[in-house]
Amino acid sequence: MTRWWSRLRPDNFTLALLATVALATVLPMTGAAAHGLDRFTDLAIAALFFLHGARLPRESIIAGMLHWRLHLVILACTFVLFPLLGLAFKPLAGPVLTPDLYIGVLFLCALPSTVQSSIAFTSMAGGNVPAAVCAASLSSILGVFLTPLLMGLLAGSQGGMADPLHAVGAIMLQLLVPFVAGHLLRPWIARWVERQRALLRYTDQGTVLLVVYGAFGESVVEGLWHKTPVGSLLAAALVAVVLLAIAMPGITWLARRLGFSREDEIPIVFCGSKKSLATGVPIAKVLFAGGSLGAIVLPIMIYHQIQLIVCAMVAQRYARSAAGKQGPGASSR
């Protein structure tokens, strides 16, 4: 019983997310205070992506880029398979999901992969870590361009979405420019960044919490909870579960069908099936500045927790499988 609860219990960050949503519900910021929080959040997001750029070793980029087949498969799963799955849920828009929640489902499907957790789970499972570093980072960078363009194709101007091309420029300025600047300064600041890795993890999480608080506070003032039935919230959670239940086995089957080794299959499964809350929330802040941002980010918040639980179980299964096969003459698969 204790073992299963430890797997299913929400992590501390998810509990902090829930507390932030509750705080924004009962104590949302308005007026000048909300405007000041918005400006401060923009600076925090820029700092976050500056540090992401400083953390990424150039050697990992070069080593990973050589494995182009693996990267093509991951990018196809992230930016082709998931958007098609999102469109498959369109019949639920209106009867089950509110329009804003369905936009949130499409947004979830258009997001890039996570970086830190994809690498961590790949390492835990005994997979190709350099390839995971490069694949997840490449997905995150391309997401700056592809996510707004995909949302333009999938949703048009629904949800108060900004013009996709204008959004790409704004997202590049806020996310990509700091990322590149951090990476160019890596020779001088890399050691300091590595020493502060534990502290910087909280910087990542704190920035996401700031954006979530601002987004939900604004949406609560506009009547988020009055406009969103409980049944629609439960439906959004079910959609997130179904998405992962389809994606992970399907991606695993595809990796094996294409003949990838076990070590390469692992980053394909984790990088191809995960979606980034840390990148998604800042992109949503720019892309849906005129819409119901709180409802739109709800599906990715739900998917975030589900993917952590499931991927932890899958990584442990890969690790046990590898341990069982170790010994004289054991193969890598």
Automatic annotation (TrEMBL):
Q: Name one Pfam family in it.
A: SBF_like
* Keyword Membrane in record: yes
Q: InterPro entries from the entry?
A: Na+/solute_symporter_sf (IPR038770), Put_Na-Bile_cotransptr (IPR016833)
The membrane-spanning stretches of this chain are 43-58, 70-89, 101-121, 133-155, 167-185, 206-225, 231-255, 283-303
Q: Which UniProt keywords are present, listed alphabetically?
A: Membrane, Transmembrane, Transmembrane helix
Keyword Metal-binding appears in the UniProt entry: no
Q: Which residues form a coiled coil?
A: none
Q: Write the protein's name.
A: Bile acid:sodium symporter
Can you name the source organism? Stenotrophomonas nitritireducens
